[in-house]
Write a structure and sequence with these properties.
Layout lengths: L5 E8 L4 H4 L4 E6 L12 H4 L5 E2 L2 H13 L5 E4 L5 H13 L6 E5 L5 H7 L5 E5 L5 H8 L4 H16 L3 E2 L5 E10 L5 H15 L4 E5 L23 H14 L4 E3 L19
Parallel strand pairs: 2-4, 4-5, 5-6, 6-8, 8-9, 9-10
Antiparallel strand pairs: 1-2, 1-3, 7-8
Length: 274
């Protein structure tokens, strides 16, 4: 992405974990671009920068305050990593002008030390992916063989910043970490390894969110995805992952029920709220 701010949508969002979306929605800003190039990307139009428009730092500051005024439970920064300097400055300005709701850093887990350091004291909740513990899978699907090592370091930095989870009286998260793992078809072993690492390292101090909503879209240039990415996750695959987490002793986790693998879960990126 160019050295300017680009975003594709800013609106109340109701499809996050219950302690993030609540009843009024999460004040979500979808930024354009991404640090990864996953071949199965569920939000390709913004990840590749095809959707989005340039906004000023002042406009971003106003957006944060507008979302708070609309009743958002929090400010939710989606794929913010590559805009960390601008976002940090906009948050600082917004907080001086009355922004008081928690700030959620919603990222892919492939985070550098510098960007996370810039967020310290500004971010209350990390809503982060942990996609791979299998380097070969990370290389094949995301061209990032170092993903497991980088994600481990990033999660450690996040935990040092925000610590153990804190909730308000209505069950809304005020502080803490939720680690998301999107189960991929045929990748149950990798998913179990992610759960192993997160739970053995942080116990129930970090929430897990085990997701079955993988949707097999077409790949780059409209090409068909390779097997097994060209199918949905089976009910049996997901049940085995959830059972494994329970057997480990995981109690702080979110799971999904029913058929969530639908394109309707992907919002339109048409510049709403910008």
């Amino acid at each position: 992405m160019p050295a300017k701010l680009y975003a594709a949508r800013a609106a109340l969002h109701f499809w996050e974990e219950p302690c993030i979306s609540g009843t009024r929605g999460s004040g979500t800003v979808f930024f354009s671009g991404c640090t990864l190039r996953c071949i199965y990307c569920q939000n390709r139009s913004i990840a590749r920068g095809d959707a989005g428009q340039e906004i000023s730092l002042e406009r971003l500051t106003e957006i944060f305050l507008e979302l708070q005024g609309q009743g958002a439970h929090n400010i939710n920064l989606v794929t913010p990593t590559h805009y960390a300097p601008w976002i940090a400055e906009a948050l600082e300005k917004a907080k001086k002008r009355g922004l008081s709701i928690p700030v959620v850093y919603n990222c892919g887990g492939y985070e550098g030390e510098e960007s996370l350091r810039r967020m310290e004291g500004l971010v209350d909740i990390y809503l982060t992916d942990f996609k791979y513990m299998d380097s070969d899978l990370a290389a094949r699907y995301s061209n990032a063989p170092d993903y497991p090592a980088e994600a481990e370091k990033a999660l450690e930095r996040m935990y040092r910043q925000v610590g153990n989870p804190v909730f308000d009286g209505n069950g809304m998260m005020r502080k803490g970490i939720i680690v998301r793992h999107l189960l991929l078809p045929g990748a149950l072993r990798n998913a179990k390894a992610v759960v192993d690492y997160v739970y053995e390292t942080y116990g129930d101090n970090v929430y897990l969110s085990l997701m079955n909503q993988y949707t097999p879209l077409t790949g780059d240039e409209g090409a068909e995805l390779p097997e097994p990415l060209n199918r949905k996750v089976t009910k049996r695959e997901y049940e085995r992952l959830v059972d494994y987490a329970l057997e480990l002793g995981v109690t702080n986790a979110f799971i999904q029920e029913g058929d969530t693998a639908k394109e309707s879960f992907i919002p339109p990126f048409e510049g709403t709220g910008l």
